[in-house]
Amino acid sequence: MDNEYNQKRIHPPIWQHDYLVLTKLYKILQKTRDKYFLKSHILLDYGCGTAPYKELLKNHIEKYIGVDISPNDGADIVIAENESIPLKNNAVDIVLSTQVLEHVKNVPFYLKESYRVLKKDGIIIISTHGLWPYHPYPEDYNRWTRPGLVNSLKSSGFDILQTDSILGPLASATQFKVLFLAEKLIQKSIVGKLLLAIIALSTNLKIYIEDKCFPTQGNQDASVFVICARKK
Fold it and tell me: How many Å apart are CA 132 and CA 205, to the nearest integer?
């Protein structure tokens, strides 16, 4: 089940309702990997879940460590919420956080722990939601703007290296609507899932066109923000 889910995250079919967001996120992570990763690096996936991006990254680093809250038998380290990671200070070169921060109740603590375990000049890579429907996993606390995310990282001691925004405001609004619809249809019978695939196929074309015509600029709304920052 995890493998099937991960494949939908990293290689979604064009009829999947979040196809464009996930495809763009994968490409951004790939470019970030190629720019910053070294074979000697140790990476901590903080809130790893099913570790969907492990295959993308593991051959470009020395060691991958998955950390998550209980229950997650697939994580290398399991902790309680708001519990410190059982690693020494300055232990890792990279902290990865994909679609986690919106589910974190105590964001300052999470970023403080990330800063603590990173070596000097180590980097943190975060992707999290801007305009997106409520999705508790197990809870859903936060939505971000680009300045808000940048400010949170700077307040925690990081220097910003780069930011990326996925989907412009108009495309994000369309994506929001199809995500809301997907939540309703995916719970139905096979007919509902087939209907969702048909709707998503046409809607993905609409989202693509809207994003091309009205791309996100500056601090405008986006579906997902990706930020890469360095520990001072």
Answer: 19
From CA 94, how far away is CA 137, in angstroms rounded?
A: 24
CA torsion 216-149-79-66 (nearest 10°) is 50
Nearest to 196 by CA among 8, 1, 15, 3: 15
Decide if pLDDT at 1 tops 70: no
CATH 3.40.50.150 fits 2-168+216-231, yes or no: yes
Query: Can you say whether the dihedral through the CA atoms of 97, 100, 101, 105 is positive or negative?
Result: negative
CA 210 to chain centre: 22
Contact 195, 203 (CB under 8 A): no
Q: Tell me if 168 sits within 8 A of 220, measured CB to CB.
A: yes
By DSSP bridging, strand 63-69 and strand 42-46 are parallel
pTM: 0.95
For 56, phi then psi, to 5°, come to -70, -30
